[in-house]
Amino acid sequence: MIYDTIIIGGGPAGVAAGVYSARKKLKTLIITESFGGQSTVAENIENWIGAKKISGIEFAKMLEEHIRAQENVEIKMPENVVDIKELPGDPTARAGWEVTTDKNNSYQARTLIVTSGGRRRRLNVPGEDKFKGKGVAYCSTCDAPVFKNKSVAVIGGGDTGLEAAIDLAQYAARVYLISNKESLVGDLSIQEMVKNSEKITVIENANVQEILGDKFVSGLKYFDKNDNQIKDLDVEGIFVEIGSTANSEFIKKLVNTNQKGEIIIDHKTGATSRPGIFAAGFITDEIYKQNNISAGDGVTAALSVYNYLINNKTWQKQK
Amino acid sequence: MKITIYTTAGCVYCKMAKEFFKRNKISYEEKDISDDNARREMIEKSNQLGVPVIDIDGQIIAGFDEDVVKKLLKL
Questions:
Q1: Residue A285, pLDDT above cutoff 70
Q2: Cβ–Cβ under 8 Å, residues A142 and B12
């Protein structure tokens, strides 16, 4: 059994691709860990066009209901693709692809649409794994009250870092906002709030090197690039807010990616460097990482898959 | 069966957990850990500094994983 297309991922790009692929009557499989994408954890989404305000959970449910209402679409969830191989045969015949998953299942398709999005970037310093949930945290809106009257650090001087510092300042005794850049880079109005807060101390030009503690976090070590000294900071909570990174490891050997690990696509068609593999959404080199744009790019990829297939002799023979 | 969920107002996974129990018509007690006693109790029970923590008859789960909770509830 060979699908017309396998969509990898269930965020707005994957679901939009699935809906359009179903409407083109393509035999479609979606393989995903979950539906909703990175916005599922958002408390509120106020810029999804057509909805004044919905929670991340509602957004995820809406996407899941929409895709489950389609005929011709099969869903494997929770399941993750770990490897992809080209099907044997004359490469010019464009036979297709076989994907293998973390459940040791294999599925074959003429085309792929890669929409596996991104995940929170980690610091990758000693202590980060050991103290996860024991002081190292990744969700300030969730866990800020845990650190009431304590000292905490936020790592990251971009928008999410600034917002986390503001969230935490409502509860914590002291908030250190640590940036590895010379100055903060986030939204200017939030920068203003940070600078005006008596509770927040900004530490710029600093690289966090290690997270310290016994049972729970007790502090961190950072390298101060201003005077080339290694310094200690006593904190009980560390919030890591250094952005997201593309989930492209499993496909890097097949398609061209940029320095950030994003899949380079033709923005008119969603085509990657490899015929038959398309991509959309956060995982691509799209500049604006937005749910609405991801959905639109998913539509583009699905329609391009349809055009690719009707020009593909192997597919026509099979039909 | 006695179930306690330790939560905060802004925590999406706490909401997911509560919705799961409501959907399955299982009653639970919610403790918001911005209260000092609730926070102390959660940290002592779980050795965790993050929400949600779910206590199902003394079995402690950090975070919300539907499969793990289902297994404990034998659903």
A1: yes
A2: yes
